[in-house]
Amino acid sequence: MADWTGFLRLEAGHKLGKTIPAHVYFQGALKVTRPIYLDESGQASFYLMNPGGGYVDGDRYRMEFVVAEDAQVLLTTQSSTKIYKTKSAPILQETEIVVKNGGFLEYIPDPIIAYQDARYRQKTVIRMERGAVLVASDIITPGWSPDGELYRYRMLQLKTEVYLDEQLVAFDHLRLEPDMQNMQALGILEGYTHYGSMLIIGDQASAEFLEELHTVIEGSGVAGKVGCSALTIPGIAVRMLASSTQEIEQLFEQCTRFVRKQWFDLEPVSLRKY
């Protein structure tokens, strides 16, 4: 673990109708709050924190999360993930998530903000048992640069692997390199500046649910371009191109609220931090 700038492991269990932290360990530039219960459901919310305020040249981070049977966990970050200038080596963040049968995880981090000359690699491996439910999202935002130009970061690479009962069922790879790509081209950002991706996976993700989610998205009123498609397993991928972080956050919040209500009869919760 000495090779990591920050390391964090959180295991959540279920006891007497309530989700509790079964094991928590962190060191270096990663920390996690004690559980916060935002309603009477017993779902535990945790805030992930980077005390350094941002990621800098050569940083390496690893996070591990385990959600036990019947546990319900909401994970979010205290603030956005700020990626600063990285001249020598790209920043690396690895995340491994395990959700067991009957477990429910909402993983809703704040946006990734890439500043001038930033290079960032993110790898997320999700291992689910059948009967588990996952809602996870990522948002990418271009950061400020001295000349006011967008896309001054060097490289952003996000890889996500999803395993169901140890079988690879979904693989997503996004790589943005403004120096090598026309960021406004078809199939990249197409005139927009912000990108969002959300995975909704669970046995409840039927064709009927997908149609209902389409209706929610169409009635959301947010500006931007949205795609929503079924996965090869019971699950849905939602993608969005927009001109602001708030537009993507608004849509993803509505999708999350719909899942919480339809699948678990849970009321909405607010993740506002400012």
In short:
The protein is built from two helices and 17 strands.
Question: Any overview of this molecule?
Answer:
By secondary structure, the protein is mainly β. It is 12% helix and 46% strand. It has helices at 207-218, 245-264, and strands at residues 6-15, 18-28, 31-32, 44-49, 60-67, 72-77, 81-83, 91-99, 104-108, 112-114, 119-128, 133-142, 155-164, 167-176, 194-201, 225-230, 235-242. The strands form two sheets. Strands 3, 4, 6, 7, 9, 10, 12, 15, 16 and 17 form a ten-stranded mixed beta sheet that branches. A seven-stranded mixed beta sheet has the order 2-1-5-8-11-13-14, with no helix packed on it. The protein is globular, with a radius of gyration of 18 Å.
Radius of gyration: 18 Å
Please state the overall shape, judged from the principal axes of the Cα atoms: globular
Which band does the percent of strand residues land in?
over 45%
Mean pLDDT: 93
Number of strands: 17
Q: Gap between N and C termini, in Å? A: 33 Å
Order of helices and strands: EEEEEEEEEEEEEEEHEEH
Main sheet: strands, sense, barrel? 10 strands, mixed
- Percent of residues in helices comes to 10-25%
- How many DSSP H or I helices? 2
- Flag low-confidence runs: none
Which structural class matches the secondary elements?
A: mainly beta
Key terms for this structure?
274 residues, mainly beta, 10-stranded mixed β-sheet, 7-stranded mixed β-sheet, 46% strand, globular
List the helices and strands and how they pair.
Blueprint: E1 6-15, E2 18-28, E3 31-32, E4 44-49, E5 60-67, E6 72-77, E7 81-83, E8 91-99, E9 104-108, E10 112-114, E11 119-128, E12 133-142, E13 155-164, E14 167-176, E15 194-201, H1 207-218, E16 225-230, E17 235-242, H2 245-264
Parallel strand pairs: 1-5, 4-6, 5-8, 6-9, 7-10, 8-11, 9-12, 10-12, 11-13
Antiparallel strand pairs: 1-2, 3-4, 12-15, 13-14, 15-17, 16-17
